Amino acid sequence: MDALIELNESTAYLRERGIEDVDVAIVLGTGLGGLVDSIEIIHSWSYSQIPHLPVATVEQHFGKLIYGVLKGKKVVAWQGRFHFYEGYSMEQVVKPVRISRMLGAKALLISNASGSLNPAFGKGELMVIEDHINLLPDTPLRGANFPTLGTRFPDMSEPYDATLTALLKETAMELGIDVQKGVYASVAGPQLETRAEYRYLRAIGADAVGMSTVPEVIASVHMKMPCAAVSVLTDECNPDALKPFDLDEVVAMAQKAEPKLTKLFIDLVGKIQLKPH
């Protein structure tokens, strides 16, 4: 089925069931789903209920769409995301972003868990993403372009909206939350990197590495929806002192950082000045 038809049908399903105009969309990553506890929930759906939406297969991703009010704004929160390594196409990976925009979202906030490549950044810290390096083997924009979504060749000189990112940093400072700033590299996964690969990623300018976010940002830029993103640095990827990957430790570190990220996003949503869609 035509991808645009699927998006229209998914959006229509949600509108028919009570989603009115959306102000802010939020994508919540590994171990970071607790923000929904602060939302005045109006409706929620399992991903399996929404037509044409994949089902999240990662154990730590809840696979629920939450619609409600946060700091006086209508929000949709995607509690769990889709990854390229799960076998989904890039078009499927970015459906939540595109559906959010089609529902009227005027800003997008993204969180993820990632590995720290910068020796100055420690486990449990937050990193505001200022730019990215896309090492994924595909893009959500490959194939036919739909002009109703965006232009054929979207500009990527500022993928992370400068105004929204500055507001994010300002909010963190006001809350007394220390944040790092850096470049995020997105790789296909699901295997972790070798020592040589970590050295390569650091050499080309990456401060953190993960397996998500970049396709969502590309889709957001394509649809002219300002976005900002934060990584929780859950492990240290030092090739000279590399320890075996421990998923339980990563999830625990994400959950430990969750309260400050939750507070940061809540206050940020309250401060966002919305522009017309």
Descriptive tags:
5-stranded mixed β-barrel, alpha/beta, 9 strands, 277 residues
Helix content: 25-40%
How far apart lie the N and C ends? 27 Å
How would you sum up the global shape?
A: globular
Oligomer classification:
single chain
Structure overview:
By secondary structure, the protein is α/β, with parallel strands linked by helices. Helices cover 30% and strands 24% of the residues. It has helices at residues 3-16, 90-93, 95-102, 162-175, 195-203, 214-222, 247-271; strands at 24-28, 40-46, 64-70, 73-79, 107-116, 126-134, 179-186, 208-210, 227-236. A five-stranded mixed β-barrel has the order 5-8-7-6-9. The longest helix has 25 residues, at 247-271.
Spell out the blueprint of helices and strands:
Blueprint: H1 3-16, E1 24-28, E2 40-46, E3 64-70, E4 73-79, H2 90-93, H3 95-102, E5 107-116, E6 126-134, H4 162-175, E7 179-186, H5 195-203, E8 208-210, H6 214-222, E9 227-236, H7 247-271
Helix pairs in contact: 1-3, 3-6, 4-7
